[in-house]
C-alpha cells in the first residue's frame, strides 16, 4: 500500500519551492516538513500557472477585478487586470488550463497552491483595487482545479493536504 501512496503526485505552486516566478521575481519558499517529505518521495509536480500562461518575470501585479473570483473569470463575467490596467485574463485562463492538463496527465487529485494569488488563491484573494485588501475568494487556477474535482489547499494547510492524500486512494 505505501508503495502506491508514494507515487501519488501533488501539484504545488512553483513559488513555494523557492522558484523565482512571482510577479516581483521572488519565490515564496515554504519550509514545511510535509513539502520536504513529498519532495524526497518524488511526489511534487511544481507549476506556476502564470508562467504557464505566458506571463513574464517580473511582471506588474494583477488582481481579479471588482472583488470577483476565479469562477467568475472562467465564466467570462470578470477580468484579471494588472496594476497598469492591462487585461491579462487570457493568460490567467490559459495558465489554469495548463495546470489542469498537467494534473490530468499525472493523475493528480490534490494541489497545494499559494494563498492570495489571483491564480492560486484558494480561500483569499485581493479585491481588485490594488489596495492590499483581501477578500474571501479563489483564483482562476484554484477555481478550475476544484471544478474538475481536484482538492485544493493553501500553503497554510500542508497537514490537511497530507491527511487528505493519506486518506484517499485512486
- Number of helical stretches of at least 4 residues: 7
Shape descriptor: globular
C-alpha Rg (nearest Å) = 15 Å
Mean pLDDT: 95
Helix/strand/pairing class, anyone?
Answer: alpha/beta
The total count of strands amounts to 8
Share in β-strands:
15-25%
Descriptive overview:
This protein has one domain. Helices cover 34% and strands 16% of the residues. It has 7 helices and 8 strands; from the N terminus they run αβαβαβαβαβββαβα. Strands 2-1-5-8 form a 4-stranded parallel β-sheet, sandwiched between helices. β1, α2 (33-41) and β2 form a beta-alpha-beta unit. α5 (89-105) packs across α6 (140-147). It is globular. 45% of the residues are buried.
Short description:
The protein has about 170 residues and is of the alpha/beta class. It is built from 7 helices and 8 strands; from the N terminus they run H-E-H-E-H-E-H-E-H-E-E-E-H-E-H. The chain has helices spanning about 1-5, 35-40, 50, 70-75, 90-105, 140-145, 160-165, and strands at about 10-15, 45, 60-65, 80, 110-115, 125, 135, 150-155.
